[in-house]
Amino acid sequence: MKLVRFSARELVKSETDSFYRLGLWQDKTIFDLTEQDPEVFGSISQFLQQDDLVGAINRVKGNARPVHVDLAEIYAPVDFQEVWAAGVTYFRSREARMDESKDAGGGTFYDRVYNAARPELFFKSTPERVVGPGSEVRIRRDAKWSVPEPELTLLISPAAKLVGFTIGNDMSSRDIEGENPLYLPQAKVYRQSAALGPAILLASAVPDPKQLTLRLVIKRDEDEVFEGETGIAQMKRSLDDLVAYLTRELDFPNGVYLMTGTGIVPPDNVSLQPGDVIEITVPEIGTLTNTVAAE
After folding, report:
1. What is the mean pLDDT of each run of 10 residues along the chain (295 residues)?
2. 49 and 64 share one domain
3. Which of 75, 103, 138 is the last residue of a domain?
4. Reduced 3-state DSSP string for 137-166
5. CA distance 107 to 111
6. CA-based, 20 to 30 A from 15: which of 56, 146, 226, 277?
7. How many domains does the chain have?
8. 110 vs 80, 102, 178, 235, 263, CA distance in Å?
9. Are 120 and 188 in contact (CB under 8 A)?
10. Which domain holds residue 55?
């Protein structure tokens, strides 16, 4: 069961109609849930207040108006949710972070984080800075080595429950991050550095998240610059553990997204350039596609 945040010209009949809508995405059709119950499906935040998410959808989906996906505009599935991220959750990420920071003497920090009980968690983006499918992501102008980080991203309810999954791109400036571990916020948090989408796969539809896989492709003109794949089973930390640590001393009344780290790291000779196309695929969710902005 997948939810999508979308708009369609044919559904907006008056100024009182909601432009952004929530829909149930099945194959090539999106069923407009907002029209059926705007008090529940007027926003993701409202939806997350429900005790029975699947029951709320089942109650209205039979009467929901269908819209062909080609006639809809798909947006990032976020309205009032902050985006957080976890780091060094895969062995491959540990290796890359240790290598990029060895000259600055920070390599052992990442080894210690990988083996510690407490995970690395950091703030990634406000909702208004998040971009969606088909939109542009950016690389910092003061960075020389920039990469996408494809990450399974958790949607967590105000009650601190894992309720769904989407795809995240945690854009990163590896040279800035490697220069000094304290530069991590500058390497990670800037305009258009976070992408989410295209849909929310409800957790109730995923019997075992460890069976999910992620695939990254970077295209430059007609060429594939890089391709890589990993499985969530390669993640050292459990999803429940990450959720528990994030919500231990923080409240999220509108819910929150948590990127869970990356197990796909391009080689050192690969750095994003303007015009590059980034495709991140989780088959059960879809493909998140973004282009690197010109500046």
Report:
1. 88 63 95 94 96 95 94 95 92 56 60 82 96 97 95 97 97 91 93 97 95 97 94 92 97 97 91 97 98 91
2. yes
3. 75
4. ECCCCCCCCEECCEEEEEEECCCCCEEEEE
5. 7
6. 56
7. 2
8. 31, 10, 11, 15, 14
9. no
10. 2-75
